[in-house]
Amino acid sequence: MEKKIFIKTFGCQMNEYDSNRIYDSVKKIGFKKTDDQTNTDCFVLNTCHIRDKAKEKVYHEIGRIKKIYRKKNKPIMVLAGCVAQAENQEMLKREPYIDIVIGPQSYHKINETLKQFISSVKKEETDFDTISKFEYFDKIENKSNKISAFLTIQEGCDKFCNFCVVPFTRGPEYSRPFNKILYEAESLIKNGAKEIILLGQNVNAYSYFENSKEYRISNLINELEKYSELKRIRYTTSHPRDMTDDLIDCYKNNKKLMPFIHLPIQSGSNKILKLMNRKHTVEEYINIYEKLKKINSEIEFSSDFIISYPGETNNDFNDTLNLVKKIKFINSYSFIFSPRPGTKAAELKLIDNETSKERLNEIQKYLFIHQIKKNRSFEGKFVEVLTENRTKDKLKLFGRNKFNNSVIFLGDENNIGKLVKVKIENTNQNSLFGKIQKNKSMKAA
Ligand code: SF4
Hints:
By secondary structure, the chain is an alpha/beta fold. Helix content is about 35%, strand content about 25%. The protein has helices at about 15-25, 55-70, 80-95, 110-120, 130-140, 165-170, 180-190, 215-225, 245-255, 270-275, 280-295, 315-325, 355-375; strands spanning about 5-10, 30-35, 40-45, 75-80, 100, 125, 150, 155, 175, 195-200, 205-210, 215, 230-235, 260, 300, 305, 335, 380-390, 395-400, 405-410, 420-425, 430-435. Strands 2-1-3-4-5-6 form a six-stranded parallel beta sheet, with helices on both faces. The longest helix has 24 residues, at about 355-375. Bound molecules: iron/sulfur cluster. Iron/sulfur cluster binds near residues 157, 159, 161, 166 and 167. The site of iron/sulfur cluster has 10 residues, from helix 6.
């Protein structure tokens, strides 16, 4: 008999991609995706370790699920993702409601693990076995039929920033075979994808060797450019050290590569970058920015900032502030440093809360000013939007412009999957609002 499976996904796009691949996989053993979390046979929490208090949030979630199922049959409770990888033993001991713990590099074993559990064996799968994982998923067609589809090309990280758990939870860098990625891209395009977002923890570190030739992300972008049905290409998340000239040159030659780059810097102080073990300097970052702006002045940046990293003085913070004023990032993430167990930075002395909050408010003030200003610059203009779907209330359409801004607009459902020109009437910090205007000669922003 067919069983239902519900996956609640936390965190980044890579987790979202993994969840979809799990759905594709478990179909083979008779599990069908459900959107009803109150009535499922298998409940998967695909967790994220990046944000604050990740472990506590998982216990809280499980408490909530227990309440839902108090008077019903308990679902098979699967803990997946980075928290599962990092905390597997402890969580199994502390929370008997969890039946299966499976780390991101063991998802190719999910069918086998579920089958074994159904024959009543409690199971923990948290080995780093990335190659087998992708070999397995390569054989299962990616059924995503989204207009904007994710495609993982690389996993893991060898950089070991002192604050980050990714090298421990996702393992060393692994790049998927070039032809397997293109094969998956073709299947996504066949299913209607008009935009492909290449994913990886260090996506621009992609490096695959075949017959002594190295294939980089630039080669992938150049190949994807050739598919006429594909309209847009993006990639995330990149590291400044891997912004090599071949990738920068893609912005000269590729019309489908969007002029918006998320490039985390974390701090504007070289001293702090060194303490973080970031392996790049502020000057190197600015150099990348200037090279790209020279190629196309329209290119915009977003970034990540860790505020009050241990050792950050007022001068260091002011360096970050000056960087934010120089590079007018149009959309960024900024957080007060919070230690992750098992990392080097977890042992360092924290900066007091009051100072940290003041610094965060100050930096966000400037980040938000740029963001709002950029959004307002679209008011009264036409922007090119890739229409993705209807809004939840079904009254409007949703899509994104080149800079990845959400655009909500009035228009016909026939436009889903198409590039349309939308006249922007008003904006807020996060979104642009407008309507499609047909048959007008227009200059798109
Ligand atoms: S480069 Fe990114 S993923 Fe790798 S350790 Fe640093 S922050 Fe983590």
